[in-house]
Amino acid sequence: MSASLSDRPTPPAGRSPLDAIVWPAAVGLASGVLVLLVALPIAGLLLTSSPGALLRALGDPMVGPALAVTASTTTVSLALIVACGTPLAWLLARSRTRAARVVETLVHLPVVLPPAVAGVALLLAFGRRGLLGPPLASLGVGLPFSRAAVVLAQAFVAAPFYVQAAIAAFRRLDPDLVLVARTLGASRPRVFFTVAVPISWPALGAGAALSWARALGEFGATLLFAGNLTGRTQTLPLAIYTALESDLRAAQSLSIVMVAVAFAVLVAVRAGSRP
Amino acid sequence: MSAAGLDVEIRGRFGALAVDLALRAARAPVVIAGPNGAGKTTLLMAILGAEAPEHGHVTLDGVPLLDRARGIDVPVERRRIGYLPQRYTLFPHLAVLDNVAYGVPAGRRAERRQRAVETLGALGLASLAARRPAKLSGGEAQRVALARALASEPRALLLDEPLAALDASVRREVRRFIAARVRALAIPTLVVTHDRADAEAFGGEVVVIERGTVAQRGSLAALAASPATEFVRLFVDRSTDG
What we know:
The complex is a heterodimer. By secondary structure, chain A is mainly alpha-helical. Chain A contains twelve helices and no strands. Chain A has helices at about 15-45, 50-55, 65-95, 100-110, 115-125, 135-140, 145-170, 175-185, 190-215, 220-225, 235-245, 250-275. The model of chain B has no long low-confidence stretch (mean pLDDT about 90). The chains are: A mainly alpha, B alpha/beta.
């Protein structure tokens, strides 16, 4: 081509077949596949049994204890995550040191760690022959296969979701706001509790909801570290797993309960994270 | 060494900038001018206690707030120095009244709110008391921020380009408002600005800082008569809105 660079070709009058048909079709097909992949199993859960049968299945003797274990352990693990994670996030958000970045990466690690690995790691830390096993044993504490183990497993896998959200929220806080509060006579704790936390509250709430949902769904690490003991360490996901072997309807009913809870969390997070 | 007023001397590296600054402020406001990155904010941060220089001291009315040689470094919240930054820094989750009450020293909640009501009233801002900061205009926000700083009964005041974020149309009015209050207060006050009009409104000495050190100081008239640097010449020539 001998045309100079300034000689732009005139654009064609109509759109090419690629623009008009192939591309929209490809985007539509790809999108449809993924939406169906998510929607079909949910539809399967909701549509393959009568409401009556599902309600009757909720009377299964496994359901009550699993609900109770789940409610108590996720409450405790979330409290632990918020109580320790909020100050940690404040520290990490305000520190510019290398050590802080290393800790931040470490705390996020469970997000990408397979839950089974988390279970093995927890056993090797707190198990009878783990790092802290002998000192814990000498205190008469046996963590594995206890309700405390369920809480530890949940906190391990769910904490990053809250800490990540809290760090992001605290980083968005104008440093001048913190400084002004201190010039007005507020101590560091007072600034934290009366300025940083209240201003970041919507994002902290959204992070807590996500974190709780993750704790609620915890399965692999709990199974390995805390076992599957009805009324003791058997949470809803483990009850679903157990129910599958005997009564599919019970597994289905519990699953629908969890879908409803998950959906509620999602709606709450969306509402809370709106500015 | 005179006892009254603010006496500052800081030396050391802050990031890439080597700072060597000394200045005093008594009862009249001192205007600080200088290019971006010259060390103006560093100076304010050192006085507030948010940054610690390697060497130097900050003394307020004879009381050492910072003295590297003697190992004194009073925390920010006990220095009693009011700070009004350029960006709006009202606490967004608190109504105007609670913003102003936040810094009132000691007293029960009701007493602190009463004091806040009085301060807002004295500044002609009583009608804003119940509003949320998001519902204020920029000019109102900076007036309330000044009220909040004053309600904390500061012994010195640092204003960091307090008008820079405002529209030109309201800047003149807010400037008059702040300058009048600050002069009436008669406590050591530093006003950082890029605007010659601020220097005129606040009066007093102008200190020009360049590359971490004082390039020239004196009255606006003296600076205009013989500017020592290009920046000083531009500063005395220029005003954003007269």
